[in-house]
Design goal:
Distance between the termini: 13 Å
Largest sheet: 4 strands, antiparallel
Shape: elongated
Number of helices: 10
Number of domains: 2
Length: 449
């Protein structure tokens, strides 16, 4: 890609040089903001698609919100949107919620947390959109926003930001068309990679589920497990409830303290960690937000977590588990965790973790013992009755070694594909900024490669 033949200083420090024949003016001189709004006299039964900040993303564009009538709409549902407009979030500006309306909208109303920017006669609608979503404008909007936790910019200040453009509408259209083609190609690649990531995750789950419920030998003689959700299992495997796999000691299966035992006011910063569901889901036992005092720890010592305990999430995102590593800080269970201590002579922690965390059979057994198709909470008494299928320890070790190898291969591929997606997203953003600021001359480039 070649640059334009000549450049001039734009006179704007954060913009720098632009092609010599381009102009730079404040947005308010090339576009208008918030031209139409629903009046308070709007009929109560008037229906429209409401778009809030959660419906808009810089990469995803706009997702139409639910249809609601004026009487039930929030008071911020006022801004009317037309074809060719670009909406820019003026609140929580760090979310970079910018989207173009390139279809004939039918009764779309967005939140007053957006500025609805309509192009004037000197600027092509899609070119204006690419300016507004460029890194230059995004960074400027964030820089001018006021507030820490809820940064915002008012519409008049937004419209005071500089815009730049070639005077020729044909040139603007050529640039916008080029970016449409290129971003569509990039989006297609991203979509393919995201689908591949999902397929890899499904393959990973299927491999684990097969290994921990059927074993590694496809020729193994099978028997009926007696469990409708599990079907047949290797003939020499055993079906055991969790309560028969626990260590022979009090508290081998322990639910976190009740709310009355551990109040929020008890966890306001002290010496001993309270490990939470987030610790388990992220497999991160170094970070912590909640602590209790030594005195409180002594009071709740029965809830202490020990190395190699299996920790299981019990509310909201249920059934996630992790093995508490050696060498981590002393701590206790959060009320939303269960501690499981297994008899290692019968079942290994690693085999149990694969079975609990990755196999559908585990959740199906919880559902069965809860007499429900979906569950919001796992209780200790329910968990004790959950069914495991258990080969001998030697076979468990072989399965664990196999799964460690296979999942590491797939996880590496998933990580690489995610990095590719991140690169493509970054490349798309950089390409838009380079082209729309005139660093690259695409006037005569009609390729579709």
């Amino acid at each position: 890609m070649k640059p334009y033949p000549e450049y001039n200083n734009s006179g704007i420090s954060w913009l720098g040089k632009i092609p010599k024949h381009w102009k730079a003016k404040r947005l308010k001189y090339v576009a208008q903001a918030n031209q139409e709004a629903l009046p308070e006299s709007t009929a109560n039964d008037y229906e429209f698609n409401y778009v809030d900040i959660g419906n808009v993303g810089l990469e995803e564009g706009i997702k139409l919100g639910e249809r609601i009538n004026f009487a039930k709409a929030p008071s911020r549902a006022r801004r009317i949107v037309r074809n060719g407009d670009t909406i820019v979030s003026t609140v929580r500006t760090y979310l970079k919620a910018v989207a173009h309306i390139d279809f004939e909208p039918k009764d779309i109303v967005c939140s007053t947390g957006f500025a609805v920017i309509s192009p004037g006669a000197v600027i092509v609608p899609k070119f204006l959109y690419y300016i507004l979503r460029s890194e230059k404008i995004i960074d400027r909007v964030e820089a001018l926003s006021v507030g820490v936790s809820y940064p915002a910019i008012n519409a008049s200040e937004l419209m005071g930001i500089a815009a730049w453009y070639p005077p020729s509408l044909d040139e603007q259209k050529n640039i916008a068309d080029y970016l449409d083609r290129k971003t569509a190609q990039i989006d297609d690649l991203i979509s393919k990679k995201e689908k591949l990531i999902e397929l890899l995750k499904e393959e990973r789950a299927a491999i684990i589920n097969q290994a921990v419920t059927k074993g590694l030998d496809p020729k193994a003689e099978l028997k009926n497990s007696g469990l409708p959700w599990l079907g047949k299992i290797p003939k020499h495997w055993k079906v055991k409830r969790l309560k028969y796999l626990l260590k022979n000691k009090k508290g081998a299966l322990k639910t976190g303290p009740f709310g009355s035992q551990l109040k929020h006011s008890d966890m306001q910063g002290a010496d001993i960690k309270v490990y939470t569901q987030r610790s388990v889901m992220d497999n991160d036992f170094d970070s912590a937000e909640l602590y209790i005092s030594n005195d409180k720890f002594i009071e709740l010592s029965e809830f202490e977590i020990f190395p190699q305990d299996i920790l299981l999430t019990t509310r909201g995102t249920i059934g996630k588990c992790a093995i508490f590593p050696n060498g981590k800080d002393k701590g206790i269970l959060h009320p939303c965790l269960i501690r499981v201590q297994l008899n290692q002579n019968i079942i290994s922690n690693m085999f149990a973790q694969f079975y609990m965390k990755e196999s559908s059979a585990f959740l199906e057994s919880i559902n069965h013992n809860s007499n429900a198709t979906t569950i919001a909470v796992i209780y200790g008494e329910t968990l004790r009755e959950v069914v495991f299928v258990v080969p001998d320890r030697n076979e468990q070790n072989k399965i664990v070694d196999f799964l460690n190898h296979k999942t590491q291969q797939i996880d590496t591929q998933i990580v690489n594909e995610k990095k590719s997606v991140e690169y493509l997203v970054e490349y798309r953003s950089t390409l838009i900024s380079e082209v729309v600021t005139g660093k690259i001359d695409v006037r005569n480039n009609h390729d579709s490669d």
